[in-house]
Amino acid sequence: MPKILLIHPNYHSGGAEIAGNWPPAWAAYLAGALKKAGFDNVEFIDAMTNDIDDERLSAMIAAAAPDIVGATAITPSIYKAEEVLRIAKTVCPDAYAILGGVHATFMYKQVLSEAPWIDAIVRGEGEEILVEFVRAVAEGRWPADRSEIKGIAYLDGSEIVATPAAPTVKELDKLDPDWSILQWEKYIYVPLGVRVAIPNMARGCPFTCSFCSQWKFWRDYRIREPKAVVDEIERLVRDHGVGFFILADEEPTINKKKFTEFCRELIARGLPDKVKWGINTRVTDIMRDKDLLPLWREAGLVHVSLGTEAAAQMKLDRFNKETKVAQNKEAIRLLREADIFTEAQFIVGLDNETPETLEETYRMAWDWQPDLANWSMYTPWPFTPLFQELGDKVEVFDFSKYNFVTPIMKPDAMDRGTLLDLVMRNYRRFYMQKALFHYPWRGTGFRRKYLLGCLKAFLKAGVQRTFYDLGKVGYWGPQTKTKVDFHFDDTRQIAEAQLDDWRAMHDRKVRERKLAVKAQVAAERESIAVCGGGSEQMTEADHSSRAR
Questions:
Q1: 118 class by beta-carbon count within 10 Å (0-12 exposed, 13-18 middle, 19+ buried)
Q2: Mean pLDDT score, 267-283
Q3: CA 119 centroid distance within chain
Q4: Residue 255 and residue 497: Cα distance in Å, rounded?
Q5: Within 10 A of 238 (CB to CB), how many other CB atoms are there?
Q6: Per-residue pLDDT at 389 exceeds 60
């Protein structure tokens, strides 16, 4: 029976961390799948939450003596994950190193080019693929049968091989995450001072926003039965003392019927008295379900983060967002009336950003009056359509900086230091006024406690200089904007193998576009022939029928 060690890389960026330490749900889901398949010897090291440096991690891996070491990575943590597995191969040379996560899934040629010590990459959802990998190792069939395992990539000599994609996990309710593998006392939601969890209600997204990767990673949209999700939350509350959770879904309100059932099930079990929760969703869903907002609040939903995204309608259109600026203010008003805290998210830092558009985001935020506002730097994920469209405008390929707080793009109208300074100016003005005139005086009981807790999180991160990585880049105010150093590693470049993949993808899209245009022209000619000059004209009866 192989011993499996899962490791969460030690990456910090001063973004979402200011609200607390977030439990790595991936480890629980993979450990649960492995144990269900009979592989019980699983351990987990959360190097991020425990801030474990490389030297200490090396000793911990050596002491664990694993047969398989697995790590995950989003784009900014990819180098940390690669280093984790390099350390593992150094101290345990006979162990197999495997990497998963969204970045490795789409950038496997890049990863294997820069980290050839990795034995396999899991492409897509990990539960079933990892079990097949471990089973092959346990039965002595690795590496001989590796080409038979769907959904992986690996190096065969100097050749990068990707096996056919594995099917998505169809029966999500049969997944049984092992939440006991986590040290729950470490995962605290700062605004409320309670333990926090990130359960999963659905996977995938039916929308195809050009800057997002979720729809590409999960591929198809699947939703669990609400009762099963509430069963899981009830166990988290009962067994692990969780007092707050955030649904991991990109947009849990997509399925109105299922989300309403979920809320009613929480209420029926009396859980809103024991646990509060938050979600990310779209403005259009709030408008659609405005009559249900009181039910949401009764179910314990207290925090909604809205992707208002950008200042001008032009930018919203560029992002393929199905929303209108005018709806944002109305959605926030509706949530406020339902006593649900609102967080408005603005994406800034595109190539067409100007001081005027940044100022407009502040004015909009103050006009709309959300409880919280965030200005996130545009981060062009290297595996999204928008990244390809930006082309040469992307100058930074140091993926460790792709973290929503570092300006990857340099706007035409300003340098990166000025961009950071103007974003900080928005934060200072918004939260100074909120702290002095809103949070301490508006509302009582839970509302006041929550708002002051959010303010505490911001102040703590500000004092410690971890907010927005300000301490690392040397920003202390407007007087230092010309001296800011983002520490981009200019040696980081796109690997030739990955570039070849992108070129092939581009050529395929060009061919598809030409065929589509050709088909469109042919259809238009046929339409003209029938309705404008062909030998077959619509009869009066036809016309009357079409009109009806």
A1: buried
A2: 96
A3: 26
A4: 40
A5: 10
A6: yes
State how far the Cα of 156 lies from the Cα of 184, in Å rounded to an integer: 40
pLDDT in tens, 474-528: 999 999 999 999 999 999 998 888 888 777 765 666 566 567 656 666 665 565 5
Per-residue pLDDT reduced to its tens digit, 97-131: 999 999 999 999 999 999 999 999 999 999 999 99
Q: Which two tokens stand for residue 222?
A: 């699947």
* pLDDT surpasses 50 at 536: no
> Which residues are within 8 A (CB) of 328 and not within 5 positions of it... i.e. 6 or more apart?
283, 306, 308, 344, 364, 368
99 residue type, one letter:
L
- With tokens 């598809």, the residue in question is 512
Burial (CB count <10 Å: 0-12, 13-18, 19+), residue 472 = middle
Contact (Cβ atoms closer than 8 angstroms) between residue 381 and residue 344: no
pLDDT digits (tens, 9 = 90+) for 438-454: 888 877 789 999 999 99
For residues 426 and 362, what is the distance between their CA atoms, to the nearest angstrom? 6
Burial of 362 (0-12, 13-18, 19+ CB in 10 A): buried
Question: At a CB cut-off of 8 Å and minimum separation 6, what does 378 contact?
Answer: 211, 347, 348, 349, 350, 408, 409
Tokens 């407009």 sit on residue = 360
Cα separation, 173 vs 269, in Å, equals 19
Residue 303's CB is within 10 A of a number of other CB atoms, namely: 24
Strand 152-156 relative to strand 120-122, pairing: antiparallel
Q: What is the 3-state secondary structure (H, E, C) of 14-29?
A: CCHHHHECCCCHHHHH
Token pair for residue 461?
């991160």
Show Cβ contacts of residue 458 under 8 Å, excluding neighbours closer than 6 positions. 18, 431, 467
pLDDT score recorded for residue 454: 92
Identify the H or E element spanning 55. Answer: helix 54-64
Say yes or no to pLDDT of 542 above 50.
no
To which H or E segment does residue 215 belong? helix 214-218
Alpha-carbon distance 396 to 150, whole Å? Answer: 33
Backbone φ and ψ for 338, nearest 5 degrees, come out as -85, 5
DSSP, collapsed to helix, strand or coil, labels residue 58 as: helix
Confidence (pLDDT) at 534: 47
Count CB atoms within 10 A of the CB of residue 527.
11
Residues 6+ apart with CB under 8 A from 40: 1, 34
Q: CA nearest 281: which of 201, 357, 349?
A: 201
